[in-house]
Amino acid sequence: MRILCLDVGDKNIGIALSDPTLSIAQAFKLFKRNSYKKDLLELKHIIEENDVQKIVIGLPKDLNGGIGKRAEMVMEFADGLKHFINLPVEFWDERFSSNEAHRVFEMAQVSHKKRKPFIDMIASQLILQGYLDAQKKG
């Protein structure tokens, strides 16, 4: 069993995948969004290929913890995904995940230009690792 994590944006979806022991999150893929239907088909293919049993989606809450327009868009996307693939979907607070991803690249001294295509993918990895760590504590 594996868990898939999505960092859903307007243009891209960052994807991370857990290892089979549900201990380590691994950056997996970034894909450019096309149409809603094609996005769902791409995710279904990834899910089937990797024995995914659960999906975690980063929820971009406002700084005060509220649900804004971006979070509502992500929740709508998740609702459609749940009906399309019939797997459990959980949300995980993704506030500051992109900032943390930038910090990882800064520590590795990767330029802004070179890191841009990977930010969403690394953010999804950080979201998933936070989720996995919390499940072990819980």
A few lines on this structure:
The protein is an alpha/beta fold and 138 residues long.
Give a description of the structure:
With 138 residues, the chain is of the alpha/beta class. The chain has one domain: YqgF/RNase H-like domain (Nucleotidyltransferase, domain 5, 2-Layer Sandwich). It has 5 helices and 5 strands, in the order βββαβαβααα. It has a 5-stranded mixed sheet with strand order 3-2-1-4-5, with helices on both faces. The two termini are 19 Å apart. The mean pLDDT is 87.
The separation of the N and C termini measures 19 Å
Number of domains: 1
Instruction: Give the total of beta strands.
Output: 5
How would a crystallographer describe the biggest sheet?
Answer: 5 strands, mixed
Mean of residue pLDDT?
Answer: 87
CATH topology: Nucleotidyltransferase, domain 5
Structural class estimated from helices and strands: alpha/beta
Uncertain stretches of 5 or more adjacent residues? none
Order of helices and strands: EEEHEHEHHH
| Total count of helical runs of at least 4 residues | 5
CATH architecture annotation name:
2-Layer Sandwich
**Based on CA inertia axes, which overall geometry fits?**
globular
What is the level 1 CATH name?
Alpha Beta
| Spatial extent as radius of gyration | 14 Å
Give the % helix.
40-55%
CATH superfamily: YqgF/RNase H-like domain
Q: Hey, roughly how much beta strand do the residues contain?
A: 25-35%
Give the strand order of the largest sheet, numbering strands 1, 2, ... along the chain. Answer: 3-2-1-4-5
